[in-house]
IclR family transcriptional regulator
Amino acid sequence: MTKSPQSSSGGAQLLDRAVILLDLVADGGVNGVTLKDLTARSGLNTATCHRILNTLVGHKLLARDDKKRCYRLGARMAIYGARAARGPGIISRCEVALTRIRRRTGDTIHLMARLNHDSVCLDRRDGECVVPTLTGSIGGSVPLGVGPGSIAMLAFLDEDEQEFIIRANIERYAAYRDLTADKVRRLIAETRDRGYAIDVGELIPGIAGVSVPIFSDGVTPNASLGFTILSAKLTPGTLEQYAMILREEIAAIVDQ
Amino acid sequence: MTKSPQSSSGGAQLLDRAVILLDLVADGGVNGVTLKDLTARSGLNTATCHRILNTLVGHKLLARDDKKRCYRLGARMAIYGARAARGPGIISRCEVALTRIRRRTGDTIHLMARLNHDSVCLDRRDGECVVPTLTGSIGGSVPLGVGPGSIAMLAFLDEDEQEFIIRANIERYAAYRDLTADKVRRLIAETRDRGYAIDVGELIPGIAGVSVPIFSDGVTPNASLGFTILSAKLTPGTLEQYAMILREEIAAIVDQ
DNA sequence: TCATAAAATCTCACATTATGAAAAACAACT
DNA sequence: AGTTGTTTTTCATAATGTGAGATTTTATGA
């Protein structure tokens, strides 16, 4: 959980709790999350947890894998998602931009968003040459702090929140080559100065990336737009040039 | 609302109500839905409604357009959706199939799912020649009963539920050329006999379609896979042949 | 195979939480 | 400025959700 808007407590405890659980399940990923995990992480009483989960499953917001006795996001969630993507949110606003950038450069590009401690891929266009990316296809995610797409967002949050997230993710960084909390902090500092995030083969050898944050509401960096390119294709100035392209497109998106 | 699993009443009234509202907002579409609408359609007390909506907005499951004073699906919904699409649900299971069919035939193909009284486009691959479709891009929807993609699902529901849905949609049919409830009933009967749904230029002149239902749980037709083709490209037997292709792919998807 | 542990599910008395009528604040017309 | 319709807040009331524990089901080991 983020420390932030938990316990909105406008008189809807049950709903707040349901959202906590939805979040935990969403974070749980492809493997699914078990009841025990959920009670532990949410701090909720087992019975309460169970009751809420059952209801959510009943409404198909969650699905239950009876075999593995665990919970995942449900069919209705996927449908809602498809509908939401159509509304006047980031995804549909970026759709044109993505396609246009793809045509202009021929490179792989993706739209990332923040969900709790993770950075989730919302949309992407594959480039002419297939490059391995951190997140894989739409819906894939990495811990915030990993990769330029996520650093671009992280770097422009309040320092408190940054620290909170880094702390929460600290053990997960180990899975990404020689990434550490301190390195993340250094990358953040550089990114703030530069205005955009870059990575030159530090996470996946031979693969570089540039990402620019999107301040959808003018204040909070809730999303980012970024390239993934083969380091081999880099010439001096390529990254700067790509950052400019992203900036332009984002500017066009943000002011309506 | 569907008569079905409303009021699950396992001791989570508030959650049930929240889902009702989420559904209404999702149905409301691109224009957004106002509080008044929501209270009217849900039958909930204004204060209760307002409280729930506020909480949902707080969690970004819904978003509020302060200007137009109405509610839409929120950013978090889109993110959940992206994640859900990645799990072992219909979407990811159909992904390969979609791409393969697209390569085999070169035609436009889409995956539809049922949401209340509507049929929503979950995924699609565009064909070599651009054809106009009823639903447009991902997230687009039509009332159940309109178009082969939705008839394919509707036809294999219980008769009671069919009638319920047709009644609910009856006024909306008028927007689609000369479609009427009776015509929908006739199409359903034909589809049941045939095993798949077809349309030859009756909804959009010059555009034909074939769709086969997917019984993801073995019983309920929760989704469908279908082609949209130019009538001009039709030769005798094309539709049958396409239906076979769909059947094959669906068979492969359903048993694991 | 049976015994043991662990996790999931159910039950029910209790009080915290959610409810909705009504009033207040706010917009939108005329 | 007056009037109407919509949104937001308040608060006493009770219905809803809570969670400790009992029970059942499933997993693990000997």
Observations:
- Residues 238-254 of chain B form the longest helix (17 residues).
- The radius of gyration of chain B is 19 Å.
- The mean pLDDT of chain B is 91.
- Chain B has two domains: 9-78, 87-255.
